[in-house]
Amino acid sequence: MGRIRRPPVPRPTGSTHPVTENDAAEAAAAAHDEFSYLPGQAAGLGVRVPTARRLHLVLPDGRALSALRFGEDTPRVVLLHGAGLNAHTWDTTALALGAPALVLDLPGHGDSSWRDDADYRPRTLAPDAIRAIEEWAGAPVVLVGHSLGGLTAAAIAAARPELVAALLLVDITPGAAGGAGSAQLRRFYEQTVFDSREAVVGRAMAFGLGGSLEDTRRGVFHNTRVRHDGPDGRTTVEWKHHFARLAQQALAAPAPGAASAPLVDGSGWDDLAAITAPVVLVRGTRGFVDDAAAADFARRLPSATIETLDAPHNVQEVAPAALGALIAAHLGDAGGAEHTPSATRSHRLPPPDAAVAPEGAADDPTADTP
User: Which residues, in sequence order, are CB contacts of 24 under 8 Å at separation 6+?
Assistant: First the structure.
C-alpha cells in the first residue's frame, strides 16, 4: 500500500496532569495518516492491503477535485459517496472488492473544494466526476453511487453512456424520502466547531451516529480537519464537508418563505430513463428505500435489478463484503469489454435552474451520517 507516515505520539512534558482517555485518543489520532486504518480493516475482512494513494486534479475554474486510488492497475470501478461523507466511507468495500478502484471526494466533501454557489445537485456534480473518470479510470467503468452519489452516478451514465458499463445505486432512488434521519442530522449540525476530535466523537455517539466507538473515531478522523486559527490561537476542529456549514446557516437564519431547490428532484427519473447500461438498485433493509419506493423504482425501470442487503442506509460501511460481491459481478463488463451505447438515449446535462440555497442542503434526504 501507499507509504504510511507514523509521527511519534505526543507526550506531555513538564506537567503532572494525568493523561485521560480522551488525551490518549487524541494522541492516537495524531499518529495516523489517512491510510493507517486500512491494515486493521483488511484484517477484519481477511483480505490483503492494496496500494492506496491520494490523487488531485485542478479543474478549469481553479477548484480542486480529490480522490483515492486503490490498486496499481487502471481502475475499472468508480465509487461515489453520499452527502456529508467522503471517499473513505468506501474503504472496507474497496478492500472487500479486491479490484482496482477510483473513489472520489465529491465537490464540497473530503479534500475537494467547496462550491461558492453551494449547488450540490447531482447534475451539477456530474461534470466534475466525468472529468475524474476520464483522467484516472479506464472506461467503461462499473459506476457505483451511494445516496447523493447514486443520483450523481445516474446523471453521469445518462449524459455519457460510453463511460459506464454498469450502474449500481446504493440505497437511493429519486423517490426515496429519507425518513426521520434528515431532521436528526439538522439537529446534529447545530454545532460545527469543536475543541477536539474526541468532542466530535462524543456528539456523534450521543446522537446514535457512527456505529461503534472505534468506527466513529475513524469516521470523525476522515471527515474533520484541525485548524490552528481559532480564538486566542486555540486549535479547533471542524467538518470537512460543506453540508455542515450550510445546515448550520439554515438553522441560524432561515429565509422566510424561501423555496430552495432540493437535491433530489424529478431530474433523477429522467436520467435513469436515459441509461442504456445495466442498472442495479441495492437496498438496505433499514435504509432510505422503503417498499413503496422500491416498487415505484421497479415500475419505472422494469429492466433494472433490485438487490436487498441487511444494512442501514450506509450499506457500504455495514455490508462491505456483500456489496463488494455485487460490484464484482459486473467487472466483466468494465474496461475493454464491448459496450455500445445508444446515441438516441444519451442526453446532455441541462444547466441547473438556480443555485441551491442553504435550506435545501439542510433538508436533503440524502444527507448521511458522519
Answer: none
